[in-house]
Amino acid sequence: MKLKDLAEHLQLSQTTVSRALNGYPEVAEETRRRIVEAARRFGYTPNAAARRLATGRTGSVAILFPAERNLLVDPHFSDFLAGLAEKFGEADMDLSLKATRKTEELDTYRHLATMGRVDGFIVSSPRSHDERLSLLAGLNMPFAVHGRSQDGLDFPYFDIDNEGAFRQATELLLDLGHERIALLNGIRELNFAQAREEGFRLALAGRGLSADPELIFNGPMVEEMGYRQTCHLIDRPAPPTAVLAASVLLAFGAYRAARDRGLTIGRDISIIAHDDGLPFLKAETLEPPLAATVSSIRNGGYRLAEILLGRIAGKPASELQEVAPVDLVFRPSVGSARK
Amino acid sequence: MKLKDLAEHLQLSQTTVSRALNGYPEVAEETRRRIVEAARRFGYTPNAAARRLATGRTGSVAILFPAERNLLVDPHFSDFLAGLAEKFGEADMDLSLKATRKTEELDTYRHLATMGRVDGFIVSSPRSHDERLSLLAGLNMPFAVHGRSQDGLDFPYFDIDNEGAFRQATELLLDLGHERIALLNGIRELNFAQAREEGFRLALAGRGLSADPELIFNGPMVEEMGYRQTCHLIDRPAPPTAVLAASVLLAFGAYRAARDRGLTIGRDISIIAHDDGLPFLKAETLEPPLAATVSSIRNGGYRLAEILLGRIAGKPASELQEVAPVDLVFRPSVGSARK
DNA sequence: CCCTTCTCCCAAAGCGCTTTGGAGAAAGCA
DNA sequence: TGCTTTCTCCAAAGCGCTTTGGGAGAAGGG
User: Fold this and answer.
1) Residues A40 and A15 in one domain
2) How far is CA B228 from the centre of its chain?
3) How many CB atoms neighbour CB A10 within 10 A?
4) Do B49 and A56 touch (CB under 8 A)?
5) In angstroms, rounded to a whole number, what is the distance separating the alpha carbons of residues B84 and A12?
6) Half-sphere exposure of residue A35, counting CA atoms within 13 Å on the CB side?
7) A78 beta carbon < 7 A from strand C?
8) Residue A84 shares a structural domain with residue A194
9) What is the pLDDT of residue B130?
10) Which residues of chain B does A115 touch, with a Cβ-Cβ cutoff of 8 Å?
11) Dihedral through CA B306, CA B321, CA B194, CA B101, nearest 10?
């Protein structure tokens, strides 16, 4: 059943039926009721392709990820994706997932954009200077970024206060008397890792200290990484008294390392992490409970979806930039530095 | 730049240009060359919405997942998804991801189908009797199932030989003298878990043994689960001498439990698992290396995507049913039963 | 009572592509 | 040479919806 049939059956024009169904004001309430009722009875649903062609809106957005490094197995990314999927689902928009080789990444953006296959893009894991942003801006394609970038562009984004979070966490450790603090961080190229390191450095500088490059590690945020680096750290001549980790996954590895080495967490070594709220690995249920700066990454996906929708609806970028504050939750995995 | 402009510029009709670009035979090679060249020069790309409307094909497929139980954080699912995304990307099809509440699941399928928003669906985690299959069959919507189902329907699917794999693995353990064998399995409702249990039972029955219900566990396939159940098992009065796990994640937990209890894996307790080839957790690099039945789940996604594409292209279901054999790889995590 | 302003609805023009049904020219056949 | 095929290409009809530009009649204003 198509619009034409429905209109004929109601003895009305397609125009009126279309307007009634789309909630335009220029149709009498009584008529609208009749139309809506008939549409329901006949199970009429507008054809998506026709609507797309007529309106120029596709009702879908895309997110690309590198095919070789399978981001999907990174639970941080998956959880973020779940937040996106939830919001876009609510808005009845399609979220399409694209695996693409690094070398073809920009072409894929361009391809999808010029074919008019999407209304916008979600850009994740921005690097400090990211070609994708200028490309999309140049194509005049709406996009929203998870995180920020140093490019001078004015674009919509959602980010958490990574710098502030790590500054606070570091200050907490400093207040507890720690001076040799290690940082287990994400991959250096990614913007959020840089912000976190910056917060770490700022806190140290505030006390007249400077970061020891030997205590800073960058790498993938997986358990194994946390384990290995912490083992190294503990085995040093002057091991750090505290570890600041960029993910609960890293902290989890650090826990394992501390146990292996017979250290009591919270007493012999303090551990604090950033907690993205991954559902299967809760900071509060670790033993001992893990102190953390918390901010749900899934919720971030949800918010970022709202932001992209706002952008597509025409809001200016300046109104679509959000930096969520991060709470610091104290738990027994941190204690005062042993003298 | 649209088709019309291009045609006018070339002094040809839209028909000819369209045909040339889509590889139809009724256009002279020389003309085609000119057209293709001009299209490239002007950067012409056909508009997706218009093409969709004209052809009736949307160029996109969808996969739904339950919003409450976030399947995305399950690495088995994510890796499967990566395989799908890869193949659909190669075919230049959109793969759209939909979070949906369980109660609205069927409606969402219907909604997307009747609006003509997708050409087909990927159905994952089928239950033994699954309403989704009959709904989609009734809507006359192409779909492809990851796994099988007991419904009498004839539909395209990709599955691995779960029953055979677990029969083989169990037989291996039996050959090594094990008689008290525990099974750590996935959630009971899911078809693959049933097939695995069936294989397990068949192998036992082949030796005149029957499965001890107290040694069979169903649950989510996560590390924690493997750990907890294995602890219970080891603490029993007559602990099993071998454990058969449905995932490397479960086996990983079993390893941890065995170590905690001071057991040597491969000597005091044998462990064997099904290995989906998750990239971050390799059976061969565990200590000791884990014996396993192997079959890449990512590859399964890739194959299933091919199958759905075949279905959309009109192939009959009977030609699109694949059961991949599973290899059994012997490694030191299994040894003969201690007398 | 006439004129303006709403209110409610309509006809028709796109949106940009594919595809049907020919038609003219060139080539093959007798 | 006359006639049938085969090659190439074209005009135009959709695909099913939204939206523009009115228009008729009712309501309100002076």
Assistant:
1) yes
2) 26
3) 17
4) yes
5) 45
6) 27
7) no
8) no
9) 92
10) 45-48
11) 50
Rounded to the nearest 10°, the torsion over CA A312, A124, A304, A167 is -140
Ranges of residues in chain B whose predicted pLDDT is under 70: 339
How remote is the C-alpha of A42 from its chain's centroid? 42
Type of residue numbered B11: Q
B72 within a domain of the structure (yes/no): yes
Q: Is residue B54 part of a domain?
A: no
How many angstroms separate the CA of residue B78 from the nearest CA in chain A? Answer: 6
Confidence of residue A339 (pLDDT cuts 50, 70, 90): low
Q: Is residue A71 part of a domain?
A: yes
> How far, in Å, CA of A224 to CA of A239, rounded?
19
Rounded to whole angstroms, the distance from the CA of residue A34 to the C1' of nucleotide C1 is: 37
Q: A140 in the Ramachandran plot: left (φ > 0), alpha (ψ -120 to 50) or beta?
A: left
Name the residue range of residue B257's domain. 162-295
| Beta pairing partners, A83 | none
Cβ of B116 within 8 Å of Cβ of A48? The answer is yes
DSSP codes joined into one string, B77-115: HHHHHHHHHHHHHHTT-EEEEEEE-GGGHHHHHHHHHHT
| Min Cα separation A106/chain B (Å) | 14
pLDDT at A150: 79
User: A211: which 2 tokens?
Assistant: 């970061």
Cα Rg of chain B, angstroms: 25
The model's pLDDT over A245-297, given as tens digits with 9 standing for 90+, comes to: 999 999 999 999 999 999 999 999 999 999 999 988 899 999 999 999 999 99
Q: At what angle are helices B223-234 and B248-260 packed, to 10 degrees? A: 40
Strand D: list positions under 7 Å from protein Cβ.
Answer: 7-22
User: Which residues, other chains included, contact B90 with Cβ-Cβ below 8 Å and sequence gap of 6+?
Assistant: none
Tell me: do A169 and A291 sit in the same domain: yes
CA gap B129, A157 in Å, rounded: 44
Nearest Cα to Cα of residue A127 among A58, A44, A187: A187
